[in-house]
């Protein structure tokens, strides 16, 4: 076959016969691929005689598009790289057949180099599987692969694919490929690979860096195939786009969840807002992220004109609108208020064409799109207007429009509720002030100052009260109390308690009996009304004080430079337990000593303990107590516990005398506390 004698008699003839009758199509070619010899199976494959085939390059027998691939495979085989390539033969003009071609060079000494080309024709089933493999990998992000578990070499089953080249190129070493796996995934991948070496199938999702340095997500599946060597045969799918899509969907869901949370939170704020300015500020500031707006403005109608909140005026974006007539339909806000119909403008040109008068105003505005909706309540008149501005052309979607109208409706309900609360507040404030004495009794030997401070908290009118009652036998009753609750009911209850106190006090000098009778009255009425109070009867001649206490803070006694806290024995608040007897505690108010009775709103809050509040009050009273009126003003201004609750206080000071009465010398002494 090659012109040389083989060892053994007749060996050359035997080899030539084996070549000629081999079941697989075979050809012996020169280095350029020209056929020198072809066996019988080869000639039958193409339906030609051997003489017709000799002198023809074997790859010229392929489909026109495959000839170049065959020539490259021949060249690479001669370069020392054994090739096994899948090609398509042109058998007839109308029929082609897929074969697997194996190319191996024969090194002849000293003759010319020859190449053996073996054609493995595929069965119908094999051809179908090859087609499926082609479809699976052609123009797709998949690789069909095989791993030799003995050598650790990886190869693609049906030749190179774009994804295989991107992931590994010509590098088929397993360890080199594992080095490209993301550090966070490598341990898991290696563990699964170790299990596969022990005979298990393989399936993993992991991240890998391709040869360009980009991160990709792969889904790798393989079946363990026993043999010598054992192999893993499987599929690599690039699922990067799928993973990115899942991430985008997850991000979108998180965004939607955050959007929903924000909508719920802001809706709750609108529902619970307690001032008109708070409602306007919510619409102007906190709703921007939901709609992606550049700025927003909300104004309410007051006496026929548009009004903005103080904070909006400070920002300066509504100064040209604040004070404008609400019925001025030459401008979008006025038109929306008049017909209660929302208006959405996607560009400056659109708004200018509809409202030419707004041209001058818009010169200083960088907005490019506007949404203007009415703030409406139950009536037919708009309570205000809300405008969202975008700094780019924007089409408000149906959902955005519906959401804006929903928020505007909530804002309108809040405004209606606030107006009703304002009316109640004004009524409660009027009731409370009418219930308090316009002017307390005065005495030549006592300086007395009183002060009532309403709460600055939102919508809180409470039941704090004070009173000074002139009693027989040169005595005076001093009273400070606090009715539980807020609003008109608390103010009315306060008035009832104060009237009851006066009625009982004028007929009874014992403060404990007065508290007991008032408590009995409250418990017998059947109304759930509770009140803390401190009632103190002072003998103006001797300075002796008798105190009955029902849950009030301690009294403060101060002289110049020092103070002390006096805590009379206390009982439960009035209205809690029927038939309660209140103990009377006695001590002397020395001339020159200043006495403070106050409600807990002065000295206690959620941020300030009563002990700290009393300490601050005591120090202030020790410094300013010589003038009760000035001291009351100082305490009102400092308000140690803040102004979250009503405050009632009563300060009195006995005028100093030259000689103290004997009762003072016999009175018990309490520990004095020096400020500082």
From TrEMBL:
Residues making up the signal peptide according to the UniProt record: none
PAS domain sequence ranges: 11-81
Keyword Hydrolase among record annotations: yes
Record organism: Nocardiopsis alba
Region listing for Disordered, in residue ranges: 654-676
Protein name: SpoIIE family protein phosphatase
Keyword entries, A-Z: Hydrolase
Pfam families assigned to the protein according to its UniProt record, in alphabetical order: GAF_2 (PF13185), PAS_3 (PF08447), PAS_4 (PF08448), SpoIIE (PF07228)
Origin organism lineage: Bacteria, Bacillati, Actinomycetota, Actinomycetes, Streptosporangiales
Comp. bias regions, Polar residues: 667-676
